[in-house]
Amino acid sequence: MKKIIFLFFTFSILISCDKEKDVWSETYQIQNDLNIDREFETIEIDISKTPLKDFSLVDLETKERLITQLVDVDLDGKNDLLLFQPKIKANATKKYYLTFADHKKDSVINYCYSRFVPERTDDYTWENNRVAFRTFGPVAQKMVEDGVKGGTLSSGIDAWLKRVEYPIINLWYKRNDEKLGAYHTDHGEGLDNFHVGVSRGIGGTAVKVDTSYYFSKNFTSYKTIATGPLRTSFVLTYATWDAAGQQIDETKHISLDYGQNLTRFEIDVKGTKTISTGLTLHDKKGLTNQNDANFWISHWETIDDSEIGTGIVTTKPYFLGSEKYVTSKKDESNNFLHLNVVDGKVVYYSGFGWKKSKQFSTQKEWEIYLTDYSKKINTPLIVTEIKN
Fold first, then answer.
1. Which of 4, 93, 167, 180 is 20 to 30 Å apart from 321, CA to CA?
2. Would you say 151 and 143 are in contact if contact means Cβ atoms under 8 Å apart?
3. The model's pTM
4. What is the pLDDT of residues 141-183, one digit of tens each?
5. Residues 312 and 203 in one domain
């Protein structure tokens, strides 16, 4: 059986066991039809119906064992998915075989990490080896509504500008506990100097009615699904919110994979046929761009002593258009990407590249990345199971 997808691949795995040799394996061919090299694209193998507990994935040609991650998607105590990231040259194919054996696993770093942060009111924060994000919970909202200092009322997505590969979430929050506001200073790893307010930050959602945009308050609950070397994933739920008489329900399934600057949003939506996602324009002095041919929007601006590019990319079925929305209302100017709600959901990818991290040095480099990213998600790798 074959299924084509970019970040989420599902297979029907046929198990063949040699009782005498106790050997089991399946082979998969990964095909890249683009004229660009591919890496950091996570493939999922469905292992929910297998009796096995230990897996290895091996490059058929080099015999190299790949880093893998197991995920219990429904949190029932049984792993459902095996994740791995192949490296494939332009217009090429590679084969890998999945096997189990008694072997000593190499130690790996859980670069992809997320957690609820009650010690900083009630943030939910996530990161990988390149970027970090956070958003805000119900206690922070109530503090604002009750006039208590230190709260945050926003469903926007905040950026933590890290410039090291190793995880920084726990380190920065611990430092902030010891000295309030410490993560607003760069100690050599980056800092939190990205203002969100009520803006959409980098990928927050809104519903447009006539000429106005409406959006939710803070998330009301969370569920952490996975952390590991290749992916962190979690779910945020929101209270029903009003968009000029339309009652909107949304649940955000969010994931961030190793090696990516963009985090994936899959949002279950009720109450509207379209939804928008935006990039804050801050002081409105940055450079915006909309690329309808490749289904992305971007913003490039100066922040303190450096520059940052932000962007959102989607696939053709969801793309509806874009709009640079400028208003005199504080923090409500955003560059919006409009999305069709298809079968009750939208999918898009949002993130940033900070010049000080030495990942991107110009707006042009950042937008080339967005275009290449769009090509990959709109022309996914082709995965074929080869029966042994």
1. 4
2. yes
3. 0.91
4. 999 999 999 999 999 999 999 999 999 999 999 999 999 999 9
5. yes
